[in-house]
Amino acid sequence: MDWTAWSWLWPWGVDHQQVVGAVKSLQSLGEIIEAEQRSSKKWELSSEGQEIAQEGSQEARVYYSIPKGGLAQSELMKLTIAKIGFSKAMSNRWIRLDKSAEGGPRIHRAVDSVEDTVKEKLQLIEKGKADSVNEKDKSELRKRKLLNEVTVKTYWVTKGSEFSTNITKQETDLTPEMIASGSWNDKKFKAYNFNALGVMPECGHLHPLMKVRTQFRQIFLEMGFTEMPTNNFIESSFWNFDALFQPQQHPARDQHDTFFLQDPAMASEFPMDYLERVKKVHSEGGYGSQGYKYDWSISEARKNILRTHTTAVSARMLYKLAQQEAFTPVKYFSIDRVFRNETLDATHLAEFHQIEGVVADYGLTLGDLMGVLKEFFNKLGIAKLRFKPAYNPYTEPSMEVFSYHEGLKKWVEVGNSGVFRPEMLLPMGLPEGVSVIAWGLSLERPTMIKYGINNIRELVGHKVNLQMVYDSPICRLDS
Q: Please, what are the domains in the chain?
């Protein structure tokens, strides 16, 4: 090896990687040096092997720890070396075990002297005489994790055809100024490395909605909720509105707010006894309510729509719960798409994702609802909450939920909640003492609060790659 430039480095403890870095740096400058990488293998003692080379093997130390009169096995096993040493010494027949001894099993020496070949072999390898140890013994020492085979990589460095002790920085870019002045003729350019790997392009990322949706689902599951089936985007007006005690003349049922279907335009299958009870509570009242006092129309209830909220699914699940022989408390949740006939702007979409939670049990109150909501939003990382009284056709009392938006520095509505009305629950057949607390929110709103995004346009412009990541309406907005 030609140590013309490097012989002064090694004896002074220069780090191996620094030397390798210097060699590669000089190689990148052209033909200043020629460096051939070579590798060789050698044997090295492990930390345990080094200990044995100095103090002896475990089996030898076990042998020498036994006095002439023998030693109780229980006393021997207190030694740190006993577990391995006892087994190996017994295998070598250096010691014997007397199980019938008075006071318990006792260990005696079985031979007058022993030869610690393990220590001797390790000492030979430590002195660089590994060739003196046969391969079988090396393999055995390796199995005992006393010996390791390591690969040593070295460089064979010689002067190159352009060797020089003065290094000039090579140019990496040909600029217009160099071409205009002709100075490029006097400059030396760094050669292209066509074998170098390129920078990996940025790949897709999880959409913010997908990330927060996963968080919501995990939070619900941690709180003991069961996910409701939400695979029916098409609902009848009966389940979407009437079952929720929402009157047929309500503005939300107008074509300006709801998408109605042309084909099939009407639903045909309903639980007729339940439908009659819903009709009666709307038109005549009942269950302590005077109802809305209007002529309820089944043709209006049969109209098919794109569901405007996942509360239609909650109504189906609560009705199914009411058909059980004995009532059992439940906690349901859903996260899925809903549709509103909205004009698209910075804060409105024609479709979005609704999150809904429902708890049914005896004696639930508004206080229970507020406690569940605080726990729910705290798990999401939204701690600043306010509650405001509100009106919903199917909940009483009702309240809106607000959270403080750190980006906008103001309170933003994130959800709606309340206790389902008896006019909705009792026609289903649920027991009179059962209360149902529920809340709903748009997935997009807490996402914007969590990421500090001011509006939906900004969410579209979020640096996260939105295309083909998540089947969301936001992904398909052009502006």
A: 10-46+123-186 (3.30.1370), 58-115 (1.10.10.2330), 208-476 (3.30.930.10)
